[in-house]
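Notebook p. 47: complex prediction with MU-OXO-diiron.
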Amino acid sequence: MQNIRKITEDLLYVGCSDRRIQLFESAYPVPDGVSYNSYLLKDEKTVLFDTVDKACSCQFFENVSAGLEGRKLDYLVVHHMEPDHAALIQEIVRRYPEVRVVCTAKAQAMIKQFFDFDIDSCVMPVKEGDTLNTGNHELTFVMAPMVHWPEVMVTFDKTTGTLFSADAFGSFGAINGNLFDDEVDWERDYLDEARRYYTNIVGKYGMQVQMLLKKASTLDIKMICPLHSLIIRKNIGLFVEKYDKWSNYTPEENSVMIAYSSVYGGTENTVEILAAKFAEQGVKNIKMHDVSFTHHSIVLADAFKYSNIILATTTYNAGIFESMQNFIHCMVSHNLQNRKFTLIENGSWAATCGIQMRTELEKLKGSEFIADQICLKSTLKEEQLNGLDDVVITTVKSMGL
Ligand code: FEO
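Predicted complex, structure tokens below:
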């Protein structure tokens, strides 16, 4: 049965949700599922904006067919070629042979990589600022390379102020009946997953996101239709402000995140004591993660959120303990910048992971190491408490508290 949602008089939601998926992109846990958004504009011409993942192809084709009500499909706009949105392009062209596929030249080339049909015979290539008049609507195409792949573009409907934003302003999480951000407590219930989605999926490409935000600032946006999660009507300003911070690598929380791993508890005991000392000095909203247990996508999102990051781990096989090594790699590969670090190393006979962590973190632009490194030999000793106090004093000072 079709499950279509009316967005405006002539714009329909024809996407679908997947709550059975274990790992999005085979990498990220999505306990609340994920939605693959697709939109159908029914003007004098009909326009489908993107397809969906093949996981929910049946629902999607029922929706498109019912939405069209027997009309032909004139255009398929392809904003992004990642298969969670593009998997069904070939099948759309097969079912609606008169359709013209509107996309960038780079997307056209990618269509040939993913499919074998003759895209050249049905493509309508577009570039920055090109427009398409569909009757009552004028669509403008805006290039958004690397948000999140090089072929990405977004579309602005000048008539309604709707931005079809591709992966930008998306989030993990299925659509649970409510389709709009003003139908939920978005800041309370959705912002954390939006941050985790942004930082892990697009976080590396801050500069390119900044370029898109600059272009978006010239548009009178009244509604954002992303490719994942809720349609944004109420929180546009807040979401844009968050995107600006995330893509500038500006922390949202002037506080401390402690990420640690501990084999037998000596390192964990130390960071628990340290966290308590921070609290006693008035630091609020302290966050702690055991990186061996918490998925790195969650810890990375908090690394983007917090101003000060304390890393504590064990020397293992003469290197950095594996789960911490993975998390540091995650920060480096996602291009995190401008963070203040403090390092705590442990090693029962040859602690060397501190300098190795520092070498990795120095690859990040704007890294600061603000307190002396603490070196544990198996467990924290009484005489080292002063060292922890120094870490607290230096960190609190760096936060301007
Ligand atoms: Fe949701 Fe980059 O695809």
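Notes: The chain is about 35% helix and 25% strand. The radius of gyration is 24 Å.
Next step: compare against the earlier run before touching the bench.
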